[in-house]
Every structure is written in structure tokens, then in C-alpha cells.
Write a structure and sequence with these properties.
InterPro entries: HAMP_dom, HATPase_C_sf, HATPase_dom, His_kinase_dom, HisK_dim/P_dom, HisK_dim/P_sf, HssS/ArlS-like, Sig_transdc_His_kin-like_C
Organism: Paenibacillus ginsengarvi
Structural class: alpha+beta
Strand order of the largest sheet: 8-10-11-13-12
Largest sheet: 5 strands, mixed
Subcellular location: Cell membrane
Number of domains: 4
CATH topology of the largest domain: Heat Shock Protein 90
Distance between the termini: 35 Å
Number of helices: 15
Radius of gyration: 59 Å
Number of strands: 13
CATH superfamily of the largest domain: Histidine kinase-like ATPase, C-terminal domain
Main location: membrane
CATH architecture of the largest domain: 2-Layer Sandwich
Shape: rod-shaped
Keywords: ATP-binding, Cell membrane, Coiled coil, Kinase, Membrane, Nucleotide-binding, Phosphoprotein, Transferase, Transmembrane, Transmembrane helix, Two-component regulatory system
Amino acid sequence: MNRTIPSWCISAKFAKSWKRCPASRNISRRYGGSATKLKSRSLWNPLHWLYIGLGFLKDIYLFVKRHFESSIRLQLILTFVFCLLASILIRSLTTPLFENSNQYPTIDYTAGVHEIDSRARSILNDLTRDDESLPSRAGSAVTVPTVEDRVAATIDRYNQWDPSLKILLLDLDGRVLFKSPNATENQVDLHGIIRNAMDARINDRRYQNQEYSSFYPLDLQQRKAYLVVSGMPSPNIVYMKGSSSPMPMLLAFITFIFLFFWITKRKTKYIEELAQGLLEISKGKLHYRVPTRSRDELGTLADNINRMTAELEQTIEEERRAEATKNELITNVSHDLRTPLTLIMGYLRLLKDRNYESQAQADSYISIAYGKSEKLKNLIDDLFEYTKLSNQGDTLKLDTVCMNELLEQLIEEMIGYAEENELNIIRAFPPEKLRVQVDADKMIRVFDNLLTNAVKYSRKPGTIRVLMFREADYVTVRISNNGTPLSKQDVERLFDRFYRIDPSRSSETGGSGLGLAIAKSIIDYHGGEIWAESEGDEIRFWVRLKLAV
């Protein structure tokens, strides 16, 4: 498995390998120091720490990227946050564009009111100015105007500037002391003017078309008075803002939906592809595989779907093979059972009909029928044994057995049968006692079957070799003989049930065809291995079992 080395580990690797680098000695001689001194100098180099910092940031980026790609939940959260931030940005950018969309015109008198107030303050400043502020010349006689003259002059001057304004100067009782030419009042309700002036300042008079009065107190040579300036404020058309426009919010919502749909389009399309793949698989197309396009939960789901499909295809294929094997088994069993049964019934019919010439001939018929019935019984027993082992319906009676002694006993029992067939058995066993945990009766049947086959199918005269040795925690037994060379296909099918190398052989001329299949089932049941090899005319059978602890 490839692993990415963090950048902050590079300096440590560099320090370890620096001494082995030929350039380190040149650099040390050049700078008058050792590699350790050069390393200590590099610690104060800003580029060194910058490189480490960039490497650390790169590691963080790879870490986040790896987790982001492997979690669809994290992808959806980040997608939602990104779309939300984008919609907020769009709303902020479009709000100024639509803020004037709901404006409506209205008449505003605020500027006119402020203008009247400004004139009143100007008149007040002129009336309260000291006499010393007037210009004078040294050595010349200057006539100083009286208060009445100055007030009258000021009122006339401002009246000429704006004839629409009424300027009144009142005493404390509301009597008019001075007034502009366009004013006709001699007595004024002082309290009403004060109240109207205060209402104008407090209340919004923007939409009211009425006279406005600006009211200020002043002193005229220690005399209390009030300045009242009245007039119609000049109107202005202004545009008022109405309710806020829904367009920025609508655009933000549309942006969120569009971005979320666009970003998640690939995932939703992949989900649809997985759903379509499941639909194809449900139609029986078990060869169909859905593509794996990501490393997140959807990619894991695709892998699991493909694995499920492959296992389902394998299971169905095994069921088909099992069905074909069952049919083949029924056919072979029917053939192998019918042949001896037919002979038995034929000889028994001859005996029943007394169709024989002498008692010796009748005894011969009985002997043949009995021999065929024994073969029939052996075939049935082999078939029953094989069925139990294949379905693991048999219980092993495990015991610690010495393989040296077991094979020695079997070979001694087989020597007479081998000599009858002009064969010699050579054995080679280690001095060490090799013990295994097996069912002794079933293991005897395995090696008895292998030795019997070796004797039956060896070239006469010839030699059978039995070799046993230890391999780590296993004991291996090899039984070899010389006979008819076997093809690769024959070797691969030697352990199939009812398989005979010579198709012309039957239970009459050969075995039941179940011996090697039973041997393989027994070895498999013990957790061992059995296989065959053929090299030239030499045929070798191997058995490997785990040694007892």
C-alpha cells in the first residue's frame, strides 16, 4: 500500500541520509563545518520553515480531500453551505439595484421650512448685533442710528429680498412693534404662534400646505421682544422609498436552487445509473456490472452491487452445475446398478426355471449371482459413503494417529496383492514419528484406495514407490507408479465421481468410479489436500495433512 510521507518528516529523512551524500563533504569543506552545523544553520533559514509550513498545509489539504471524497454526507453539507453563501452574495449585490424600484413621488416642504428658519436666524443676528460693530472713522463725526431705525432698515432689507415673508417684532403682550409692509396685524395671539411653531418642529409637516412661522426671542436695549417670521414654505418633489423589493430574495433563492441542482446533478445521475443497473440485474442479466465512479458511499454501494451480482451469478452457476451433476449422477448410477442387477436377475431366472444341465452349473450360476450382488452392494455402499461425505453428514471420530505405523500396516497387507501382479513396493519413511489428528478408519480407506489403484493400473512388472516426509507443520505422502501416460485433462478429472480414463470401462471391468472421489472428500473433510500429477508414464498421487499439535 502506498503511503504519502508528511512533509514535516522530510527534514528528518534528509538528516539521516545527509552523511551518506558525497556532496555533504564538499559543502562541509566549503563552509568550514560539519553536516550537523549546516543543519543547525538551516533551522534559522526562513525558507526552511516556509517549506515545512507549505508541506503541512498540503497534508491538511490531502487529508480534507480524502475525507471529502469518501463521505457523501460531508459533500452534501459543503454543497449546501457553498450554495447558501453564493445566494447571500447574490442578494447583497442585487439589493442596491432594486432599492429604488418602489419609490413614489411626494411634495416635501422641509427645505422651505429650513429656508424660513434660516432667514429668521439671519434677521435675529442682524438685530442683536452691537452698535460697536458698525464702521467709524477717526476724526470724523459719525451719526449712530437708533434702534428703531436699525430694525426698520433690517426688516425693509429682508422684505426686499423675499417679499413673501411676513416679519413681525412683538412685545411680551403680543402687540406688534415693527412689521414688514405686507403684514397687516397690530395684535397677535402670542400663545397661538408659539404653539404652532412648536407643533411644526415636532410634527411632520411634509404633506401639509399651510403657513409656517419661525419664532425667536430677542433683546432690544434691555427690552424683551419676539421675532416672528412667517411664510409659505416652498414645495419640492421628493421620491419616497416604499416596501423593499422581493427581487433580491427571489434571485438568491433561484441561485441557491440552480447551484444545488447543478452541483448535485452528477450524484443524482449516478444514483439513477445505479437504479438502472439494479433493474437490469433484476431482469436476469447477471453479467451486468454497474460502474464505480466515486470513493464515497455510492461507490461502496456500486462495489457491493457488483459483488452481490458476481456471487449470485456464481451461486446460480453452481446450482446449474449441481443440477447437471445430479442428472449425470443419476444416469451413471442407473447404468452401473442396472448392469449387475440385470445379470443377477438373469441367473436367478435360470435357476428358477431350472434351466441348467447339472448341479455344478447351478452352483456356478449361484456363485456368479452372488458375486454380482456383492459388487452391487459395494457400489451402493460407495455411493452412500460419498453422499454423506459430500454433504458433510458424517461425523469424524478424530484420534491421534501415527502416519508411519498406519502406512506400514497398509503396505504389509498390500504386499501379497502386489506380488500377485508382479509389482514391488518400495517405501521411504523418516525416522521421526509423524502424528496427525484424523479419523483412522476413513484415512485407511483413502490410502487403501490409492495403493489399490496403483497396483491395478501399474505396468506389469513394475514398482510402486511410497514416500513420506515432513514439511513445516504438515506431513506429505506421495504414492507413485508407472502406467499409461495421462493427459492434463485426465489428471484434472481423476477425482470426479464416476470418471474413468477409459470410457469403455464399467463396473464390470473397473471400479465403481467413486474411489478417488471418496478419497478427496475424506481429505477435504479433514482440512487437508490431495492432488495428482503425471510426468511421462509416471503417475503420482500426493496427500498433505496438518500435523497434530
